[in-house]
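thought: fold this chain, then report.
action: predict
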Amino acid sequence: MKIVRLELREIRLPLVHFFETSFGRTTERRILLVRVEDETGAEGWGECTAGEGPFYCEEWTETAWNTIAGYLMPMVAGREVESASEVNSLMKAVRGNRMAKAAVETACWDLEAKRAGVPLWKHLGGVRGEIACGVSIGIQETVDALLEKIQRETDAGYQRIKIKIKPGWDTAVLEKVRENFPDIQLMGDANSAYTLADTEIFREMEKFNLMMIEQPLAYDDIFDHAKLQQQIKTPICLDESIRTPSDAEHAIEIGACRIINVKLGRVGGHAEAKRVERVTRERGVPVWCGGMLESGVGRAHNIAMSTLENFRLPGDVSASARYWEEDVVDPPVTVTPLGTIKVPDAPGIGFAVKIARIDELTVRRESKG
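observation:
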């Protein structure tokens, strides 16, 4: 497979509702899309999941743009590879910048699957044609507003509810949620907002029967998480700390977590996500797909990844309509009344990219090749 041309675009996509975490509030996504083209004119699409600022991790929209346009596209344009799994090797001179690399790499997987005439999920080795879905609900203006959102999502059939927590918006909020929803699968995502000094808060959370607490401590830590996990019954799920298969192996070995969230951008694309999945599967630690407010392109890649064997828990892959008035793919991603997504069987990501919609949203573009 020869990658003869790459195109990078930035689109601006307003959210239907703001999304707030311990990092801050987001009302509009600045999304980078990568299109790759082979010698036959076939194309594949990928998405960079970096945020608007360097808060979730070091990468953000501007650094990703410069990295992709200035370094990664020249490294890949005109090159031939045996398979999409080799694309990362073309970019290995660039350290880190996994979200930028994933945008290019996932586009190549989409292209390769289309060339083979098979759906991406099967090409990756997926084992299920339907995935279980949960939702992530940001910090709200009031607890009542949060309860209303949870009711709406449970009515829609979602199988797991994740709420964002931070100091001052944690135990009292969880107590109200449990009073109103005693039986739902519930988890809290701290996005690194706490320290070991807050251990008593997590002990108090045990009475709420949470599925897990996601990344409660420092974003680059596994050692303090191991100390915390020894002191609490609730499973810890690591997110930001797990960037490589080795990170996953080490975290499991020292008991830093019992669950891992896999995000395509954070680990650097499908090839690395498959390696993380294998490491966790061999060690009996379940994983699930985390979300980064993706457009339909990134959401389609998440759906494909979620079909891998060890993605045993509902992920953050939800319907397009939860985020966008109009998505950039057709059909939009929808969720069944049972809280599942039926995986498309069309070649590649399985959704048609709406070029006219993307043209309308594009604020800058650059190409190579």
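thought: worth noting. Residues 161 and 186 are 5 Å apart (CA to CA).
final: tokens above.
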